[in-house]
């Protein structure tokens, strides 16, 4: 197990990573805020799905998911159609315009990452991807998948969450 100081430094790096996320957010089209980009990305990755599944994947409340979906529907990037198995539910599906928007988002983020990581080796980029994947799996917080970890003891100067 890592030393306490390593975890404290990791927390500081997480805070600094917010700057990376903000910069990636600034390159997104004004009409496609982060929540909308997340909806498009998840539909692109997982295919058609119910709103409840999307809320689970986003790890946010259904009301937040509904607002994101409404924004994306208003722009014609996704459509809602009745679920054949349950007419009360809707299936969310990317439209051709949604696929085009998702391609544009991918192009922009890929260009920025390629520019900013141009002095990294392929191995370093791969290692970062692998470690971030593993970190995300360790924090899998979908309902029923993992218990919340206990906070650090009282002697820790760094808060358990930021």
UniProtKB/TrEMBL annotation:
Region (Disordered): 143-162
Superkingdom field: Bacteria
Any Pfam family the entry gives: MarR
InterPro entries attached to this UniProt entry: HTH_MarR-typ, MarR/SlyA-like, WH-like_DNA-bd_sf, WH_DNA-bd_sf
Amino acid composition bias (Polar residues), ranges on this chain: 153-162
Residue ranges of domain HTH marR-type in the record: 1-137
Alphabetical list of PANTHER family matching this protein: MARR-FAMILY TRANSCRIPTIONAL REGULATOR, TRANSCRIPTIONAL REGULATOR, MARR FAMILY
Protein name in UniProt: MarR family transcriptional regulator
Provenance organism: Streptomyces indiaensis
Taxonomic path: Bacteria, Bacillati, Actinomycetota, Actinomycetes, Kitasatosporales
């Amino acid at each position: 197990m890592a030393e306490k100081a390593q975890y404290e430094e990791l927390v500081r790096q997480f805070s600094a990573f917010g700057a990376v996320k903000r910069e990636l957010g600034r390159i997104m089209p004004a009409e496609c805020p982060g929540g909308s980009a997340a909806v498009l990305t998840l539909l692109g990755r997982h295919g058609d799905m119910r709103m409840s599944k999307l809320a689970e994947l986003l790890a946010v409340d259904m009301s937040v998911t509904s607002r994101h979906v409404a924004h994306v529907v208003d722009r014609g990037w996704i459509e809602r159609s009745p679920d054949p198995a349950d007419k009360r539910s809707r299936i969310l599906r990317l439209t051709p315009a949604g696929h085009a928007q998702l391609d544009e988002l991918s192009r922009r983020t890929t260009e920025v990452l390629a520019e900013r990581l141009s002095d990294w080796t392929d191995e370093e980029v791969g290692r970062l991807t692998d470690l971030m994947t593993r970190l995300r799996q360790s924090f899998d917080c979908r309902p029923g998948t993992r218990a919340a970890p206990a906070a650090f003891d009282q002697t820790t100067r760094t808060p358990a969450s930021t």
